[in-house]
Amino acid sequence: MPKEKRADLRGKVLKLPDLVAYQDGTVASRMIINNRSGSITLFSFDEDEGLSEHTAPYDAVVTILDGECEVWLDGETYQMSAGETIIFPANAPHALSAVTRFKMSLTMIRGS
Predict the structure, then answer these.
(1) Does residue 19 contact residue 12 with C-beta atoms inside 8 Å?
(2) CB environment 14-51: b (16+ within 10 A), e (fewer)
(3) Three-state SS sequence of 10-32
(4) What is d(CA 99, CA 45) in angstroms, rounded to the nearest whole number?
(5) Rounded CA separation 81/69 (Å)
(6) Domains, the chain, ranges and CATH?
């Protein structure tokens, strides 16, 4: 699927892993929804890349779309692979690191 603008994705059947490409030596992202209620962003991570520990003020739902990663959430470690989902509660410290190249969907749910 060629790179389409965010608004052009509405009303179409999408294959989320196809909407963000791997890039050597880095993390790439693509926001596909962003509004007052929340956002959905797709990420691709090259092998050995990751996100350092941080917190977010909102609940976050992460679904692995391709590959494998290691996730740290509030002192616990999880091995995750394609098709698995984890929910990061608001303000809980979390981080992730690529075991292999991997892609994920991040859904941020803003509080009311």
Answers:
(1) no
(2) eebbebbebeeeeeeebebeeeeebbebbbbbbeebbb
(3) CCCCCCHHHHCCCCCCCEEEEEE
(4) 10
(5) 6
(6) 26-109 (2.60.120.10)
Structure-token pair, residue 26: 């880095």
Collapsing DSSP to helix, strand or coil, 38 comes out as: strand
pLDDT in tens, 35-67: 999 999 999 999 999 999 999 999 999 999 999
Tens of pLDDT along the chain (112 residues)? 446 788 888 889 999 999 999 999 999 999 999 999 999 999 999 999 999 999 999 999 999 999 999 999 999 999 999 999 999 999 999 999 999 999 999 999 887 5
Radius of gyration of the CA atoms of the chain, in A: 14
Question: The pTM is what?
Answer: 0.91
Question: Can you tell me the distance from the alpha carbon of 91 to that of 98, in angstroms, rounded to the nearest whole number?
Answer: 23
